[in-house]
What we know:
Elements: E1 4-14, E2 17-26, E3 31-37, E4 40-44, H1 49-61, E5 67-71, H2 77-83, E6 90-95, H3 98-106, H4 112-116, E7 121-125, H5 128-134, E8 140-145, H6 165-174, E9 175-185, H7 190-200, E10 204-212, E11 215-225
Amino acid sequence: MDPVDYVEVARAETERGELVLRERRCDGGSSGLELRANGVFVMDTVEVSSERALATAALARCPDPRAVVVGGLGLGFTMHEVLADPRVERCAVVEIEQALVDWMRDGTIPHGPALLADERVQLVVADVAVAVAEARADSYDLVLLDVDNGPGYLVHDANAALYDEPFLGEVQRLLRPGGVLVVWSADEAPALGEALRGVFGAVEAEPLDVLLQGREEQYWLYVAGSG
């Protein structure tokens, strides 16, 4: 395996700590961007199948996904997959970090400007809990939640509340009949499954096999629907 070096591309200090974008380079010439928050790996551009699967799994379960919420911008790959579906008329992306939004807009993340040029995109810089609480009831068909690596690997401790029944109940409130919530997790999360079952009545835990930097990993999608 070629030796790997990391070159910092951008850094921001926020109320929640440090946000770093860096490029991975190796002697073989390959490279990719990596996003970290307070030293915690968030995602990169090398292995994006799980981010795309979050969108495709949700879209496949929603018969009419006209209005979609993506909780967490990341590097934009979940949003990209949502926008690839011609049924989607509106995609609201909720991201708490203004710096990350700026990097997408100004081309620091090279594919960002093209993604954000899609007129269906609405970027909301806010805590996803606040944005969901302020949204109108029955206003969305699909909610995709990917703000952490799951409840067991929080980027920020305050995000623990996003996996409990009160917040999940708020998500159910804004879903139209037949709407779907999909939550991404880096590991199996039985407590999340129970919380979703308590709100929605039923939940499906779907394992997802991916190859991450040469390692076989299994991630999880938790799917619940509004009747």
